[in-house]
Design brief:
Elements: H1 2-20, H2 26-34, H3 50-59, E1 78-81, E2 87-91, E3 108-112, E4 120-121, E5 126-131, H4 135-143, E6 150-158, E7 163-170, E8 179-181, E9 187-197, E10 209-216, E11 219-220, E12 225-231, H5 236-245, E13 257-265, E14 268-277, E15 286-288, E16 290-291, E17 294-304, E18 325-327, E19 329-330, E20 333-336, E21 345-349, E22 359-363, E23 374-378, E24 387-397, H6 401-404, E25 410-414, E26 417-422, E27 427-438, E28 446-450, E29 457-466
Antiparallel strand pairs: 1-2, 1-12, 3-9, 4-8, 5-7, 6-7, 6-9, 10-17, 11-15, 12-14, 13-14, 13-17, 16-17, 18-21, 19-20, 20-23, 21-22, 22-29, 23-28, 24-27, 24-29, 25-26, 25-28
The protein binds 2-acetamido-2-deoxy-beta-D-glucopyranose (6 copies).
One 2-acetamido-2-deoxy-beta-D-glucopyranose (NAG) binds at residues 61, 63, 65, 122, 180-181.
Length: 467
């Protein structure tokens, strides 16, 4: 009896405080608090876990050589492991298009000569093999095979005197140190020669991304780290597919950047790391050159291209340098009120209201003068990839407390039609995403409509990504 009585008292107190928590409008509250507020500090986010990557890189075995029947290819680009330490095999069917992978530029150089007896290359990124007897045929075969940048030619002899010329293709460069396959039972190998592409082609920039840096010999050590996956080949497009498919971080949202690099142990390539981040990084944090005997090579950073101008509202600042100001128009954004409304959609520069940084959008009369919803219109780029895009953003509707925020809502309008709506009542910062279809040609529009003061909704970190 006593405990249930206590529960009722506690519930009543919560209710009262929730109802009383709305006292001032967002403008009046910020005016009062900013006089002596220093703003909020943003929480720490996860940093790259190089130890875990090095540990998994040492465990995986991605080496191989001529296998199966001539002309049969190795498994397409796949994942070998995840950050959870679990070994998985996931094909990435959309990413193994040949033009996205590194390949031979013009010509080949001899890397090692053959001997008798000899051994074949047992190395990473094996592609396919064929029964080809001349060097020129073998190099032409490499040219014709997407991603090929190295060939190992040798003669395989069986006990019964049969011999076969093998031309084995790889999507990575190898050295004589990797001649470790002495032939299967009853076979021997001789004259194992290696040719490498003189010049590697720059991999195609994945759709919806831009190259930020690379190739350099250092990996990112940066905040907003989401995890890593090991790929069987160096393929930025495969990494991009995995970044797009990775579920959002509750605090940071979707994957917006990846760092792909090639791990080399004592001169031998071992695996291809795809590290993902919800905060775009750049070359300034690419400082990790390796650990122990593992060296980082071919490191490139790619950032997902958002098509919304200043989706994080950070470009809006106060002309007098204050920590608080607000406006109905800001770089990239226009707020529109209901016909008889007042400041129903605004942009605030005030850290305590923002999801990150200082800027944030507000739906609902900023002075609390009317209960009409407002509309924030984003500036959308000229979408060259017609087709499907993802609209992603964070919303918070806690300002006026549990009771008064109940009617809070936000609708996402794409080209004038509602494509998503959020009716969650009182809710702290939370990630949302909706898919939309672009018409292209600069004709696409994105708007956020909502707020019914005192049921305010704050909007931040808006991104529009090609899928
Ligand atoms: C902050 O400002 C409010 C209103 O002006 C005032 O009541 C409060 O005492 C101030 N707090 C500090 C720590 O100065
Ligand atoms: C990827 O590779 C597999 C096997 O080599 C092939 O069947 C598939 O068509 C390829 N996909 C694309 C998109 O190129
Ligand atoms: C291969 O053998 C030729 C002839 O003996 C020699 O000139 C050349 O330097 C050798 N190349 C390599 C990479 O070992
Ligand atoms: C490879 O080619 C040689 C002649 O070029 C032929 O004698 C041999 O049977 C072929 N081997 C296979 C497995 O096709
Ligand atoms: C290739 O090397 C791995 C060890 O890295 C070994 O497990 C595998 O058996 C080797 N394959 C051949 C054909 O030598
Ligand atoms: C504004 O107009 C709407 C309908 O157009 C009406 O329901 C609302 O009461 C009006 N609000 C004010 C503050 O006049």
């Amino acid at each position: 009896m006593l405990s249930s009585h206590l529960l009722i008292v506690v519930a009543a107190v919560l209710c009262v405080s929730a109802q009383n928590s709305y006292v001032l409008s967002p403008v009046d509250q910020a005016n009062q608090d900013s006089a002596n507020s220093t703003g909020t500090t943003n929480g720490q986010s996860d940093m790259t876990d190089m130890d875990a990557i090095v540990q998994m890189a040492a465990m995986v075995d991605q080496r191989g050589g001529a296998d199966g029947t001539p002309g049969s290819s190795a498994a397409p680009t796949m994942l070998v492991t995840t950050v959870d330490g679990e070994t998985v095999l996931i094909n990435i069917p959309d990413a193994n298009s040949t033009e996205t992978q590194l390949g031979a530029g013009s010509g080949y150089r001899l890397v090692f000569n053959g001997t008798v007896p000899d051994a074949a290359i047992n190395g990473t990124a094996y592609l396919t093999w064929n029964n080809v007897s001349t060097t020129s045929e073998c190099l032409a075969y490499c040219d014709a095979t997407g991603g090929c940048e190295f060939v190992n030619m040798y003669t395989q002899l069986s006990n019964d005197g049969q011999q076969e010329s093998r031309c084995v293709l790889f999507a990575d460069l190898h050295t004589a140190a990797e001649k470790t396959n002495n032939g299967a039972d009853g076979m021997s190998i001789q004259d194992s020669v290696g040719y490498a592409a003189v010049e590697l082609m720059e991999p195609a920039v994945p759709k919806g991304y831009e190259l930020v840096f690379g190739p350099i010999s250092a990996a990112n050590n940066a905040p907003g780290y989401m995890g890593f996956e090991l790929l069987s080949k160096y393929d930025p497009s495969a990494c991009a597919v995995r970044c797009n498919q990775r579920g959002p971080d509750a605090a940071g949202g979707a994957c917006k950047y990846f760092n792909i690099w090639r791990a080399v142990e004592e001169g031998k390539p071992t695996t291809y790391t795809c590290s993902m981040y919800y905060i775009p990084a750049d070359q300034s944090t690419a400082t990790n050159t390796g650990q122990g005997s593992l060296a980082v090579t071919q490191s490139r950073g790619y950032k997902r291209t958002t098509q919304v101008t200043d989706g994080d509202f950070e470009a809006y600042a106060c002309s007098d340098g204050s920590i608080f100001c607000f406006a109905q128009q800001a770089p990239g954004w226009v707020g529109t009120s209901a016909p008889n409304g007042s400041y129903d959609a605004t942009i605030f520069h005030y850290a305590p209201y923002a999801h990150g940084g200082n800027g944030v959008g507000l739906l609902g009369s900023a002075f609390g003068r009317d209960p009409q919803p407002g509309t924030l219109t984003a500036t959308v780029g000229n979408l060259v990839h017609k087709g499907v895009y993802s609209v992603q953003f964070f919303l918070s509707s806690t300002y006026s407390g549990q009771q008064l925020e109940k009617p809070a809502f936000v609708e996402v309008w794409w080209n004038g039609a509602v494509v998503g709506s959020v009716h969650v009542g009182y809710s702290p910062w939370k990630y949302y995403e909706f898919t939309v279809t672009a018409m292209g040609g600069g004709a696409d529009t994105l708007q956020f409509h909502g707020g019914m003061a005192p049921a305010y909704s704050f909007l931040d970190d808006v991104y529009l990504f090609a899928l």
